[in-house]
């Protein structure tokens, strides 16, 4: 443990003093509250003189000791409220001791207390609690940053250090009143989507996080080892193959909010651990899915934000459908003037070199197409846009396009220059699916560590027959970033992955 600073030493001395006074700094018994700070402010009526007996609990955020009378502010689950304590008005002798020897001398900002009293309005018009009894519920032995707001509403000494906020999220949530709002909105987003999917009759399921074979996406996995089975296991990079096995099992629609893990780079839109919504619906195709997603997002955004048009980093983004639909190679041609759809791998390598696009020897035709698209197109796609009809080489789990040679029935949804969702008419021909995965294995042999591996259990399930199906994966963290106006994925994750602290 690091050496204690002066404030920490004083607080630990207070622990000893409190115990000497017969007060447990960390009592175990239940403290029953009857209201919250917000309910008090919303329901108090000065004319009716109501709320004569309230009981609430919270963390001390400020205090002013003024002899026999003092003021404090506590923060509970809903907000903040002022307390007024008067030594002569405290009910019993024991509570006078709580005021003189405990509140004045041994309680600090950050301590959690319970209070009982009546509600009144001060001379300056602030609804407050006139405390009749005070109970220490938890002693804080580490001082909080003191954030001050002056009479004009200007905040001073705010806890804004980004890295410290991510590393000490508890502290961030305590002292920054708006911090919880982001995560409450995140929950609302999930609930709105879950409500719609449940309404459609789709069933929420759980699939394995530890998987014997990496599948469902092109990504580098985290690898672990099961000691009892003496076999390697992988943290899932996607849950797609398991969900499609459930469609084979006979459900119309299944969905999962899944924690996925990819052992790749970190930046403002990538975290090694992230949340995907994936759902699959039988007897549908990617055209149906485009319409459904428009409806789903429009409904979700309106539910969470109150309207379908939001502002994100200065851009006004409209979620009301229909969304623009542009074929993959048309998007590239629009930005470059070049039709690269028929280029061989060798020609694509030469083309990328002429455009100063970084490549390596492990990249097959699909990754080269993707590199060109990423270089010239992604950042231009601000309004919700479906990029459709991807080349076969980029889509090993997708059905071939019914009328376009060399293409697939796949789309990706881009918003504000970032991919938000990826969807297919799912490949349900087990023979064609095996061929695609065998081609992925060949790419792996070339050194592509993101290439897929053949999953024989998945292929066996397909051999029993999977109905025509459409499926999609939606990046929930990126969607939350959009709807909370945050530019970093770390702002919408309670505990993002961080570099080790320097010791």
Characterise this structure.
- The protein has 503 residues and is an alpha+beta fold.
- It folds into 2 domains: 6-144, Beta Barrel (OB fold (Dihydrolipoamide Acetyltransferase, E2P)), CATH 2.40.50; 180-323 and 383-491, 2-Layer Sandwich (BirA Bifunctional Protein, domain 2), CATH 3.30.930.
- It has helices at residues 6-20, 37-43, 93-103, 162-167, 169-175, 179-199, 240-248, 286-305, 328-336, 345-354, 365-376, 430-445, 456-463, 476-484; strands at residues 54-66, 69-75, 80-86, 112-121, 127-138, 148-149, 155-156, 203-204, 210-211, 223-226, 231-235, 253-261, 273-282, 309-312, 315-318, 324-327, 385-388, 410-415, 418-425, 469-475.
- α6 (179-199) packs across α8, α10 (345-354) packs parallel to α11 (365-376) and α12 runs antiparallel to α13.
- It is elongated, with a radius of gyration of 29 Å.
- The relative contact order is 0.09.
């Amino acid at each position: 443990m690091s050496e204690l600073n002066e404030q920490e030493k004083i607080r630990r001395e207070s622990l000893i003093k409190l115990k000497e006074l017969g007060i447990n700094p960390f009592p175990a018994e239940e403290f029953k509250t009857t209201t919250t700070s917000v309910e008090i402010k919303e329901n108090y009526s000065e004319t009716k003189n109501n709320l004569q007996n309230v009981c609430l609990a919270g963390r001390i955020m400020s205090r002013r000791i003024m002899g026999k009378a003092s003021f404090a502010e506590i923060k509970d689950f809903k907000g903040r409220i002022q307390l007024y304590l008067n030594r002569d008005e405290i009910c019993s002798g024991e509570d006078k001791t709580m005021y003189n020897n405990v509140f004045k001398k041994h309680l600090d900002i950050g301590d959690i207390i319970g209070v009982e009293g009546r509600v009144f309005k001060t001379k300056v018009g602030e609804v407050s609690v006139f405390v009749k009894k005070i109970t220490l519920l938890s002693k804080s032995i580490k001082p909080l940053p003191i954030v001050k707001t002056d009479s004009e509403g200007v905040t001073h000494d705010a806890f804004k250090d980004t890295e410290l906020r991510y590393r000490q999220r508890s502290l961030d949530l305590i002292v920054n009143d708006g911090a919880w709002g982001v995560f409450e909105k995140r929950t609302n987003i999930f609930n709105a989507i879950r409500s719609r999917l449940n309404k459609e009759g789709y069933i929420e399921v759980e699939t394995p996080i530890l998987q014997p074979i990496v599948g469902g996406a092109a990504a580098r996995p985290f690898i672990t080892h099961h000691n009892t089975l003496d076999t390697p296991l992988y943290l899932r990079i996607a849950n797609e193959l398991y969900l499609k096995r459930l469609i084979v099992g006979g459900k119309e629609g299944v969905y999962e909010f899944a924690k996925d893990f990819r052992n790749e780079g970190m930046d403002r839109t990538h975290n090694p651990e992230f949340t995907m919504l994936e759902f699959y619906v039988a007897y549908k195709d990617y055209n149906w899915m485009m319409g459904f997603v428009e409806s789903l997002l429009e409904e979700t955004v309106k539910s969470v934000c109150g309207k379908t048009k939001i502002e994100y980093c200065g851009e006004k983004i409209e979620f009301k459908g229909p969304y623009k639909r542009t074929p993959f190679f048309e998007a590239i041609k629009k930005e470059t003037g070049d039709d690269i759809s028929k280029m061989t791998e060798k020609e694509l390598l030469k083309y990328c070199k002429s455009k100063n696009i970084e490549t390596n020897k492990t990249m097959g035709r699909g990754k080269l197409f993707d590199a060109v698209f990423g270089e010239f197109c992604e950042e231009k796609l601000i309004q919700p846009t479906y990029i459709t009809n991807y080349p076969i080489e980029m889509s090993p789990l997708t059905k071939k396009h019914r009328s376009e040679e060399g293409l697939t029935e796949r789309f990706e949804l881009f918003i504000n220059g970032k991919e938000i969702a990826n969807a297919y008419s799912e490949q349900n021909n087990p023979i064609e699916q095996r061929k695609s995965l065998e081609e992925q294995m060949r790419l792996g042999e070339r050194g592509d560590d993101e290439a897929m591996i053949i999953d024989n259990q998945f292929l066996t399930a397909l051999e029993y027959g999977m109905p025509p199906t459409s499926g999609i994966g939606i990046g929930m963290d990126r969607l939350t970033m959009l709807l909370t106006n945050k530019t970093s994925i770390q702002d919408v994750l309670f505990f993002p992955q961080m570099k080790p602290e320097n010791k």
